[in-house]
Specification:
heterodimer; A: 164 residues; mainly alpha; 2 domains; 8 helices; B: 345 residues; Fumarate Reductase Cytochrome B subunit; two-stranded antiparallel sheet; 2 strands; 59% helix; 3% strand
């Protein structure tokens, strides 16, 4: 019986596919493989047991509610705004600060004043439920707010100073 | 300047790899390009890497073969500096130090020399051989590797929720210059610049051009493609970043889903990354794991201090001339061949 199984193993060895060989420095190699696994699986292990909430930016501020249903649009279409708002804001800054023009014609041919504080935040006055909803999820810290005030009302009431 | 067939082959291979998702994801095969291919690629990466590691680990290295770049440990009155100890380590601790220098600071590239025959006044018919120290390759390599590491670490923000503390720190340092919106990352520029240098040296230097193969050009073009598609996506073409994170989180937590409305540039980026992952274990890129197995670096140079015996050595059967004469004495005598010891009467 033993002879037979040896014969099978030897036949397998001769094919070249079966090479029962020793792993040298096995301990170190296994530690290396574990480190590799830990690095690759870091996101999985880190997220384990935490249900990520998909952001849902709210556009139900009083200022938007006041508008008639049809006029509840931003300066550009929604898809464009989700993808390009940072670029638009950057352009607005350049046009206002460097070229001194404040007028912006939206996609509905409506005229807007280019101002983050006075135009954008007038409608989107809910920083926590709008801007920060996605920014927090995507891990983005825009440097808008190092000069601009994200919550003008709270700031005026003096509530924001300690938070900052 | 020179472009060989390998150059064009790699270039067109990467262009073809861009076209695949451009057509496929453009035609709406988002599940294939967003879920199936990334998972297959990730699996190939891990399995392939472990296969290579185990294969290397099974290869016996019976003798010590470290390169000696400094004074070996010898008689007590022969002085050795720390440099000698790290370049010619006599024990494991210094061998670890040497490996750290190699892996983290690319010590052996720092040794790079350029030889040149310069005209010499004292010997006008010949010349003088000069060994210049050149650090350009080292600089390009270190810029490439560290910027790639930074870029890769930054991408953790797509795979973790909440984002771990070090990612925003790294990001704010990386976008420190606060140019443009979204802020330009220096690592992205460094990565592309280093890649262009690493590619350029293979084009400009005739010697390098001569020895460059498709397996040298292809990874460069592939990573360049990944870098360019990433930069395009971040600064110019734009995609819905929240949807991208939803997809990435789905992949990371094994609850895959494909949100609607992600631009095709994202699928191109993801497909090129998947190609890189799948290609990684079977290419020169596997030096990521292989560097730890370089026995000319990772062994302590203690040949003189310790006797290393080949583990599969066995007593060799010897058949000497005298054994031969003993066996064939009679026949040799008959044939007239001179004998060391004559037949005893």
């Amino acid at each position: 019986m033993v002879d037979k199984s040896n014969k099978v193993i030897n036949a397998l060895k001769e094919t070249g596919f079966f090479k029962p060989r020793k792993i040298y420095d096995g301990g170190k190699v296994i530690v290396g493989i574990i480190i590799l696994f830990a690095l690759v699986a870091f996101p999985l292990l880190y997220n384990m047991g935490k249900a990520a909430k998909v952001p849902d930016p709210k556009v139900n501020t009083p200022e938007i509610q006041k508008l008639p249903e049809k006029e509840r649009v931003c300066v550009e279409p929604k898809k464009y705004m989700t993808e390009n708002h940072m670029k638009l804001l950057n352009d607005w800054r350049d046009w206002v600060v460097r070229e001194g023009s404040r007028d912006y014609i939206g996609f509905t041919k409506k005229k807007y004043t280019m101002s983050l504080q006075n135009t954008c935040l007038e409608c989107h006055s809910n920083y926590d439920n709008f801007c920060n909803e996605c920014h927090k999820y995507a891990g983005i810290t825009p440097y808008c707010w190092s000069c601009h005030v994200e919550k003008p009302e709270e700031w005026a009431a003096g509530k924001l100073k300690e938070e900052k | 300047m020179g472009f060989n067939l390998a150059f064009y082959f790699s270039l067109f291979a990467v262009i073809a790899l861009v076209l695949v998702p451009l057509v496929g994801a453009g035609a709406g095969l988002h599940v294939i390009f967003g879920i199936v291919i990334p998972y297959l690629a990730g699996f190939t990466f891990l399995a392939g890497l472990i296969y290579r590691i185990v294969k290397w680990a099974r290869t016996p290295v019976p003798y010590r073969i470290p390169t000696t770049c400094g004074q070996n440990k010898s008689l007590p009155w022969i002085k050795r500096s720390l440099r000698d100890k790290l370049e010619n380590p006599e024990n494991t601790i210094y061998a670890i130090g040497r490996m750290a220098l190699e892996v983290l600071l690319f010590r052996s590239l720092f040794r790079n020399l350029r030889t040149e025959l310069r005209p010499w006044r004292e010997y006008p018919e010949g010349g003088r051989l000069i060994f210049w120290s050149t650090k350009w390759l080292w600089l390009g390599a270190i810029a490439f590797h560290y910027s790639f590491l930074t870029v890769l670490s930054r991408h953790l923000k797509f795979f973790t929720e909440p984002v771990p503390f070090f990612v925003p720190l790294l990001e704010s340092a990386d976008s420190f210059l606060q140019i443009y919106m979204p802020a330009v990352y220096m690592s992205g520029i460094a990565l592309l610049a280093a890649l262009i240098y690493l590619l350029g040296r293979r084009i400009v230097d005739p010697k390098l051009h001569y020895i460059s193969l498709a397996s040298d050009y292809f990874p460069l073009f592939l990573i360049l493609g990944i870098g360019i598609s990433g930069v395009l996506m971040r600064y110019f073409l734009k995609v819905d970043i929240v949807a991208v994170k939803e997809l990435a989180m789905g992949l990371a937590t094994f609850h895959p889903k494909v949100p609607e409305g992600i631009g095709v540039i994202f699928y191109i980026h993801l497909f090129l990354v998947s190609t890189l992952l799948a290609y990684f274990p079977f290419s020169k890129l596997v030096h990521m794991a292989g560097v730890f197995f370089s026995m000319t670096r990772n062994m302590a140079s203690n040949n003189r201090a310790i006797r290393h015996v080949n583990p599969w050595e066995y007593p060799v059967k010897v058949f000497s001339y005298m054994d031969q004469e003993d066996m064939y004495r009679k026949q040799m005598k008959t044939a007239g061949i001179p004998l060391e010891r004559d037949i005893e009467e």
